[in-house]
Each structure stands twice: as C-alpha cells, then as structure tokens.
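Lecture notes, continued. The same structure-token format from the folding unit now serves as the input rather than the output. Read the line below as a description of shape only.
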C-alpha cells in the first residue's frame, strides 16, 4: 500500500493580506518542504516580512489558508504554532545571562530543570558559545548575540525556525562568517529554516530554494542556481546578480529560433524563447559570461561576436570590469585575473575599438516585467 506523501512544513494557499486599501500580499501560494533552508528574497515593500509575520502568527491574514505541517493555523496564536523566530534585534533579555536567555522559553514551557540544563548546554555548544554562558548580552559582540538568539530559538526544537533579516546589523566580514555558520547549523539540526532578506548574496549562499518577491507577489521559486541561470523575467534577472540586457525581438529563421538584436545580429536561443514572442523581451547575459578583447576569439564553434568601444575600465581587485558601448546596447564584461591578460593590457582597451563575445547558450530571453503588481510597490525595477 502506498504511503501518503508527508505534509509540507509550511503551505500558503492563495494568501492575501490587506491594510485598508493597500495590498501587502496578493494571492500568494507557497509550499516549503520539511528540512528546507527557504529564503524569501526581495526589495523593501515586496511582502517578504509580511509573509514571515503571517507564518509566525504575528498578524492575521485577510484571506486564503495557512498550514504548518498539514494543520490549518489561520486562527492559532503564535504560542500555539510550532515555530520560533529570530529577530534582527535579537530581543535578548539584558538582565539575564546567556544561559538564562537560552533557558527562558524552556522554563516557560514547564520543562524539568535537568532537561533545561541539558538543552542549554547542547545548543550553546552547537553555536560555539558554551564558554560564554555566564556573560550578559551587553558583554557580547553582535555576532555572539546573534548566535545566542539562534540557540534560544532552536532550544525549543520548533518544526520551523523563522529568521527575520538576522544578519542585517552585522558588518560585512562578520555577515559572511555567519552565513557559513547558519548553513552549518541548519545541516546539523535539520530544522526547516525560513529566512527573510533583501541581500541576494545571503540567499544564494545559504538557501536550498528561494522565492523572489515583488509588489506582494512571488515572481519565481527555485534553487539558487535555477534562479541565477534561468530567471523568468527581467526583474528577477536584475535583482539576482548583475546582468546585461539587450533589446530586440524573438525571431525564427531556417536554423531555428533566435533573438534579433537592434543592430541586426541574430543570437540562437532555446526553443522556449518562442513563448515570449507576444510580450516585451530582452536578451540577458551575465557579465562573467562576456568576453572582451582587441581581437575576436579563434575557435571551431564561434560565439556571438559584436564590435564596440570600451568606455570604462575599472580594476576591482580580483577582476577588471570593462564597459563596452555597441550598436546593440551597453555590455559589461568581467575579466578575472589569472584567466586573462594582465591589467595593463586591459587598460590599453580604454577608448579603443574592441570585440565582445559570449556563448549563446549562456544568454537567456526574459520578459520585460512579471506578474501583476507595479514596480513602484516592489521597490523599483523594470516596467511591467
């Protein structure tokens, strides 16, 4: 007999949240599987924090259905949901020691003292802070305070851990360290993490799947690689990483589907590009996929090659960023050091005629916009 499929950790079905006439979420549906590190990513005002607050029970939804592990929780208060939350400000009790902060929720649940002690030690060791157990929050660095908040939330062993931009207050170096630490902890405990951020690097480096949001809608859901390499529209492509966009139109000739640039160059494209013929479209190429040089490359399988003029050459440390104006539009190319000529050669390109090229398999036809919702609501972006 076939076993029924396990219920997802979280499921939103056509969820809408309104504040008067303002729509914060508009018919959002999400399915987050147990054990995922799921990231809600988008600009300010996109609806990601509203989604997190709805899951946590901190605000009521207007319509739709919300389930946690298969149970409908629309009307359940936060303390009756099997979730816990790490906030950006950590919300540690300043008058309590680190150990007492971690123990607080366990004692409120009435766990025996011996079990409380075991869990406090277990989760402080998990985050590497057991030796700090007698310190107070005011004696901790930002990264240490963040890990205490994480230990406190995990100690209750929730089915779902909500993380509301917890790295936002940390400096860049510490933020990168905590990205590695959070990934390690997630792998070790196996709890479902739902992480809210506007930082694409955080999402790409930690998440198993990402939901890109804008204007109260989900624009795309997929793995970091799927979203980076195959964005569904120009908004997603522009928000996730840096992109070049060349205007033109989808065309079909004797050799198959292609994309005709405004200078007449035809770029071979996948057959899926035909689905965008009736809308405004652009060809997207990532800067790291664009080559640049005084001469086009030699090879048996020639890439797309167009001419232009290098208008800017900027040394960026481990790579050089070269901006080229062409008749088809402006292209940015990245030349990583060790994989190209010396920077002195690159500087000689400035104000000179150059060739830019790319493998057509590394370009994608994207629609100009996306689903409903204005781009003003989504914090800016292309029209659509």
């Amino acid at each position: 007999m076939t076993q029924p499929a396990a219920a997802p950790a979280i499921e939103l079905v056509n969820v809408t949240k309104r504040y008067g006439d303002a729509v914060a979420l508009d018919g959002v549906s999400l399915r987050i599987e147990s054990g995922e590190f799921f990231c809600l990513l988008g600009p300010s005002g996109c609806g990601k924090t509203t989604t997190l607050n709805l899951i946590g029970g901190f605000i009521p939804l207007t319509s739709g259905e919300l389930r946690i592990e298969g149970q409908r929780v629309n009307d359940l208060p936060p303390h009756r949901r099997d979730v816990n939350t790490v906030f950006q400000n950590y919300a540690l009790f300043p008058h309590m020691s680190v150990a007492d902060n971690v123990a607080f929720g366990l004692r409120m649940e009435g766990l025996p003292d011996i079990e409380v002690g075991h869990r406090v030690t277990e989760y402080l060791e998990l985050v590497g802070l057991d030796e700090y157990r007698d310190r107070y929050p005011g004696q901790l660095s930002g990264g240490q305070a963040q890990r205490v908040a994480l230990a406190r939330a995990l100690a209750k062993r929730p089915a779902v851990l909500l993380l509301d931009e917890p790295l936002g207050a940390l400096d860049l170096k510490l933020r990168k360290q905590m990205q590695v630490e959070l990934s390690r902890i997630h792998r070790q405990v196996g709890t479902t993490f739902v992480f809210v951020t506007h930082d694409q690097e955080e999402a790409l480096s930690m998440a198993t799947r990402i939901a890109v949001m804008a204007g109260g809608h989900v624009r795309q859901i997929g793995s970091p690689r799927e979203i980076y390499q195959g964005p569904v529209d120009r908004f997603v492509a522009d928000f996730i990483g840096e992109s070049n966009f060349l205007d033109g139109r989808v065309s079909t000739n004797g050799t198959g589907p292609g994309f005709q640039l405004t200078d007449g160059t035809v770029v071979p494209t996948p057959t899926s590009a035909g689905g965008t013929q009736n809308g405004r479209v652009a060809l997207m190429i990532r800067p790291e996929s664009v080559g640049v040089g005084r001469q086009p490359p030699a090879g048996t399988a020639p890439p797309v090659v167009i001419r232009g003029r290098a208008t800017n050459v900027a040394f960026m440390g481990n790579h050089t960023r070269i901006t080229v104006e062409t008749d088809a539009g402006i292209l940015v190319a990245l030349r990583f050091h060790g994989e190209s000529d010396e920077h002195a050669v690159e500087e000689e390109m400035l104000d000179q005629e150059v060739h830019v090229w790319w493998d057509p398999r590394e370009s994608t036809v994207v629609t100009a916009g996306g689903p409903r919702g204005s781009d003003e609501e989504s914090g800016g972006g292309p029209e659509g």
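Point for the exam: Residues 99 and 133 are 5 Å apart (CA to CA).
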